[in-house]
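During the no-cost extension, the postdoctoral fellow (Dr. R.K.) reprocessed legacy sequence entries with the updated structure-token encoder. One reprocessed record is reproduced below for audit purposes.
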Amino acid sequence: MNPTKLRSSLIAALVAVFLITVPSEAQKKRRAISARSPGAAFTRELISGQVLDNVTGQPIVFVTVAAGNRTDFTDAQGRFELKNVTGQGYFTFTAERSGYQPYVVQYKPSDPITLTIRLVPTQTVTIRQTNGTVHQVDMESFKFGYPVPFSGYRDSESEDFCTADGTKSYIHRSQIARVAGPAVIVAGGACCTEGNAAKMTLTLKTGPTMEVIFTDTCQERYKVDVGARQHVSGQFVHIPITDIAEIVFP
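Re-encoded structure tokens follow.
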């Protein structure tokens, strides 16, 4: 081979090797940087504050507040205390409860130790009882359910329904616009192999209205109720479907 051409080929090969190895070294440096500690360790002896409703300004009870290695729950005044919270450069601070959008931030050593947190409320479900009592409950907490002897409480976001012709459906609460009651006890018919069951009128968000039977009530020892967290008080309520005049979903 011509010496000049050979020299050119060697130079081109060296350049190619250089271009290949340089990105590899850069990647190693990036990996080394990302593997370093995010910052110095630090401890906050006390982080305290209050959680408020962003719309009403009222304190929110039973909010789970967590930071680093500590967790607390807000009291009736929406207040919390977290003691001896440790972090490495920062720690994640969260405040969560059904009925509100979660609050998540990175807490740094320079951040204040007394906090006021405002949570944005989500839509609620309206439950009206036959005695006139009205409840506004958190949509995220709403469930149909019933106690099972020796087995605890069974609940589900998707309820087992059955229409008069025996057709069974699993309908998620997010698909329901309204449930009209109170539930009445009727012969199970095609929906149940034996015995009676509870029937209500259900309207879907897509428009159809139908009479449905709670198939869980085909075994008459199981009495379905509604379980949900009251939005303002934070307390859970359990109301038999036979005592409910109407449920309206957002």
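The chain has two domains: 41-119, 124-248. The mean pLDDT is 84. The remaining legacy entries will be reprocessed before the final report is submitted.
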